[in-house]
Amino acid sequence: MTFHRFPLRKTLLGIATVSALSLSFAGTAVAHCDALDGPVINEARTALSSGDITHVLKWIPAEDEARIVAVFDKAVAVRQNGDNAQELADRQFFTELVEVHRASEGAPFTGIKPAGEIDPAVQLADRALEEGEIDAFLARIVDKFEQNARSAFEATLAAKQQAGDSPEQGREFVDHYVQYVHYLEDVHNVIAGYTSTHDH
Predict the structure, then answer these.
(1) Cα atoms in the Cβ-side hemisphere of radius 13 Å centred on 124
(2) In whole angstroms, what is the distance from residue 23 CA to residue 35 CA?
(3) Is 170 exposed, middle or buried (0-12, 13-18, 19+ CB in 10 A)?
(4) Over the stretch 146-200, which tens digit does the pLDDT of each residue have?
(5) Is the dihedral of CA 163, 164, 169, 170 positive or negative?
(6) How many CA atoms within 13 Å lie on the side-chain side of 163?
(7) Which residues contact 180 (CB under 8 A, 6 or more apart)?
(8) Alpha carbons 143 and 134: distance in angstroms, whole number
(9) What is the pLDDT of residue 119?
């Protein structure tokens, strides 16, 4: 059985979200906020259509509210000038809004991302909130972790049984062992709120 290093951050995103742990996942957890189908831009579309920015303001700090309201008002006015103008106005508002939101989280803004690229774990986390039910999501996360942990364990155990046959097989065991231990260490530390140091 071949063991591959598992994408820990993606696997545990749901656990970290629903457990309300104080962790930083700047590369994944907040990335969907700059996507065209992410929650920030979805609410921005609704605001532009209705002319009411109220629900969008929660995504930005209070000190940036005047700036975003001004951009919003201009976008609403420009949208009246036809489809092309509407598209440009919407894009400008999305860009300003997401840039301010990302900055408030200490994350860089690298442009609006296309739809369809949001991490599946983030989609499931959002869906759980929309549906008001977390059990199905938790079950999926737990199942995924169990599969990964069992695969790592079985591969490492099999390598251990052959480790004494030659230096090469011993090194193969060590490679499996290091990845196996680090994976379980990371899982435990994420859930417990610790920072892993990987001192092995």
Answers:
(1) 20
(2) 22
(3) middle
(4) 999 999 999 999 999 999 999 999 999 999 999 999 999 998 888 887 765 555 5
(5) positive
(6) 15
(7) 3, 152, 153, 155, 156
(8) 14
(9) 83
